Amino acid sequence: MNRFFNRGRDNLSDAKPTSSPATPSASPVTGPARPIRLVYYDENERKFHMDPEAVATLQLVKEPIGVVSVCGRARQGKSFILNQLLGRSSGFQVAPTHRPCTKGLWLWSAPLKRTALDGTEYNLLLLDSEGIDAYDQTGTYSTQIFSLAVLLSSMFIYNQMGAIDESSLDRLSLVTQMTKHIRVRASGGRNTASELGQFSPIFVWLLRDFYLNLAEDNRRITPRDYLELALRPVEGSGRDIAAKNEIRDSVRALFPDRECFTLVRPLNKENDLQRLDQISLEKLRPEFRSGLDSLVKFVFERTRPKQVGATMMTGPVLVGITQSYLDALNHGAVPTISSSWQSVEEAECRRAYDSASEVYISSFDRSKPPEEVALREAHDEATRLSVAAFNTSAVGVGSARNKYEALLQKFLKKAFEDYKRSAFMEADLQCSSAIQSMEKRLRAACNASDARIDNVSKVIVE
């Protein structure tokens, strides 16, 4: 799978392992690397598309997937954070964001094998959101990309330079717009942020080049306390105050599980900041490295496979969910979370049923003699392989899976009865043909001019 990510570009440098102690061990991604786009917006067609290269990569990932998205304005260091999560001290950059093809969601690496604190094994997928600040006249594009990143993620990191102020909160007005662009279910009216919140990822507000001394009422506070203070309702009245509080209320409701991390300026020299990805961690300020270690540790400890209801996200599920959302957006409709996940669960279980049926047919040992015990042994082995194939590909534990499990059992029973009936009929025909052949030879031996009992006996023995 790494071959999709190891096709070098002329301006990419070889990756070097990071020395950060908080960086966990992961499957190595060697050689020149580059991100590949998952979703992009064609400005000529004015439609969203999935890149076939990313689709082909994700279709191979049958295990659970946890998605960590890094979102924020362009040229504010998202690539550095992504490279640290990937386990690199130097890495690669997405092409300049003014190019139309770079707007969208980008896979930053091949999936990384991880084990959650509860022992769950899954694949970590890093996702970069490009062009969030590239508003069209209505702001629709940014809201749609922002919404997609949130809905696909297990953890959503909002990368920002400086402190939280009214300007930065205004940029998160995208959160209030999400309720207009996404629905929880097909029936019912407009959703609230709190209804969407049950499907939302862990939200991490990452403040870069942070310079404030965190204190409140002459006591030190944590970055999380600082975030909660910033999200408190503003006192007063009027339209401006109401708009400010709507944003704050939406962030609190949409992201009930939230955290904040601050990173000081990594270097003092401005020229060095322009090539941060090429400077070893040892040369960065100790306070910065400490904050970075805490962030990376938090990400890997708290990330879990994405799940809605009983359906765990895998590579094929991620492809299906994303395509379902894009189909709705491209047709001017509002994507529906529950319907999208249900349709993907249905499609994946149907695909698992088709595959399991083929496995049964191809693995049934037709060399067995047409006897009940022998055929039953062949059936049991083919059934075992078929059910294993189904369980490998099927998703969820709900009605769709139950339906196709029942259909598979019916298919296996019918296929066995059909084959058994066919085998017995063929055996019967072979026996009848043998008896008729023996009868002819016996008659010929008995009617021969030199017929003798010995000659007749030889026909019977043969």
TrEMBL record:
Residues 1-31 are annotated as: Disordered. GO terms for molecular function: GTP binding; GTPase activity. Residues 14-31 have a biased composition (Low complexity). Residues 62-304 form the GB1/RHD3-type G domain. Keywords: GTP-binding, Hydrolase, Nucleotide-binding. The keyword GTP-binding applies. The keyword Methyltransferase does not apply. Pfam families: GBP, GBP_C. Belongs to the TRAFAC class dynamin-like GTPase superfamily. GB1/RHD3 GTPase family. This is Putative guanylate-binding protein.
